[in-house]
Amino acid sequence: MAEKKAFILRINPEVLKEIERWAADEFRSINGQVEYLLQHALNERKKSGKKKKSD
Questions:
Q1: Residue 26 vs residues 44, 47, 49: alpha-carbon distances, Å
Q2: Would you state the torsion angle of the CA atoms of residues 20, 26, 39, 43, taken in this order, to the nearest 10 degrees?
Q3: What phi-psi label fits residue 11: left (phi over 0), alpha (psi between -120 and 50 degrees) or beta?
Q4: C-alpha triplet 11, 23, 39: angle, nearest 5°
């Protein structure tokens, strides 16, 4: 398993409440839900062909 990197996230309190509810509905931690959503968004971006080549 790849090592995970910690970082600080500033987020609107209302958005955090919604993510917390969503995470609870899907039996995930808030951290797990945020990671899931980011991974899903990245996968969708790759599928749509909008991936930008890195230098």
A1: 20, 24, 29
A2: -130
A3: beta
A4: 75
- pLDDT (tens digit per residue) in 21-38: 999 999 999 999 999 999
Task: Say if CB 18 and CB 4 are below 8 A apart.
Answer: no
Tell me the whole-structure pTM to 2 decimals: 0.77
User: What gap in Å lies between CA 21 and CA 25, rounded to an integer?
Assistant: 6
Tell me the C-alpha distance between 18 and 22, whole Å.
Answer: 6
Residue extents of the structural domains in the chain: 13-46
